[in-house]
Write a structure and sequence with these properties.
Helix content: over 70%
Strand content: under 5%
Distance between the termini: 35 Å
Oligomer: single chain
Number of helices: 3
Number of strands: 0
Mean pLDDT: 78
């Protein structure tokens, strides 16, 4: 920015870009959760279809009476595997969201600091830069050593 009169436009652009990045991130996150839910529903439909087919294939009462126990153990094993996979996917979805949010906040901070720094002399921008630095230290990932960094 060349002068203080450009400051409002620069701040508006920084805030608008921040809002757009957050909106995109939330929409992508919703999409991933919807895909996960759809997968679980599809698995449930396939499982129900398999149970119905097993009932229809039973040739006598003895075979029919073993279906509930067989189905229980098969479902238990499948649910344990599904729970592990779902947990991993959920953790990955949240890690991606956290990384995207971190990147959006860092970009917004830099854009805002640049706008404030370009609005006048360095002495006028120093309080703003100091405020942004202090605000950044409130976040556990601000120093680049937080637990979600690089995952």
């Amino acid at each position: 920015m060349s002068n203080a009169s450009d400051l409002p436009l620069a701040l508006y652009k920084a805030n608008t870009e921040f809002q757009l990045r957050i909106n995109k991130l939330v929409m992508e996150n919703w999409k991933k959760w919807l895909e996960l839910s759809t997968r679980a529903a599809d698995d449930g439909i396939a499982e129900s279809q398999a149970r119905v087919e097993a009932l229809l294939k039973a040739q006598d009462w003895a075979a029919l009476s073993t279906l509930p126990a067989d189905g229980f153990w098969r479902m238990l094993q499948q649910r344990m595997g599904d729970a592990n996979v779902t947990g991993q996917i959920a953790a990955n979805v949240q890690a991606h969201f956290a990384q995207g949010l971190r990147d959006a906040v860092e970009t917004w901070q830099k854009d805002t600091a640049r706008a404030m720094g370009g609005a006048g002399d360095a002495a006028a921008a120093a309080p703003w830069n100091d405020l942004m630095a202090q605000w950044g230290h409130l976040w556990p990932w601000a120093d680049g050593k937080g637990p979600a960094r690089g995952k």
